Amino acid sequence: MSDTRDPDYRPIAERMAQDRTADGVPVAAGLRVWTNDLDRGVVLGPCSYPNPYEAVWYDVDTGKSRPVAMDGSRMATRHPSTGEMA
């Protein structure tokens, strides 16, 4: 029987292991970050609606009403202007 899996599909654990913030830090639950809106936040974990063909999106708690969804490229551990750690 031939393998009919899509060659572009990668399990979420594999994609998370390769995911990095905009400044190159591996993304993991509990990581303190700056969002692209320059809010401080904490990565809670992957969103509950991942798409197996796209980047992993993460729930980030910024202290506002509800977590926001961000992918690694929209987060950084250092402020882009001041270099301050999140």
Describe the structure.
The protein is mainly β and 86 residues long. It has one domain. 8% of the residues lie in helices and 26% in strands. The chain has one helix spanning 12-18, and strands at 32-35, 40-46, 57-61, 68-71, 75-76. It has a 5-stranded antiparallel beta sheet with strand order 4-3-2-1-5, with no helix packed on it. The longest helix is centred in the first third of the chain and has 7 residues, at 12-18. It is globular, with a radius of gyration of 15 Å. The mean pLDDT is 83.
In short:
The chain has 86 residues and is mainly β. 8% of the residues lie in helices and 26% in strands.
Strand order in the largest sheet: 4-3-2-1-5
Q: Gap between N and C termini, in Å?
A: 51 Å
Order of helices and strands: HEEEEE
Main beta-sheet strand count, sense and barrel state: 5 strands, antiparallel
Total DSSP E strands: 5
Shape: globular
> Number of helical runs?
1
Can you tell me the number of structural domains?
A: 1
Strand content: 25-35%
Q: Percent of residues in helical segments?
A: under 10%
Quaternary form: single chain
Q: Kindly provide the radius of gyration, computed on alpha-carbon positions and rounded to a whole number of angstroms.
A: 15 Å
User: What structural class do the secondary elements suggest?
Assistant: mainly beta
Which blocks of ≥5 consecutive residues have pLDDT under 50? none
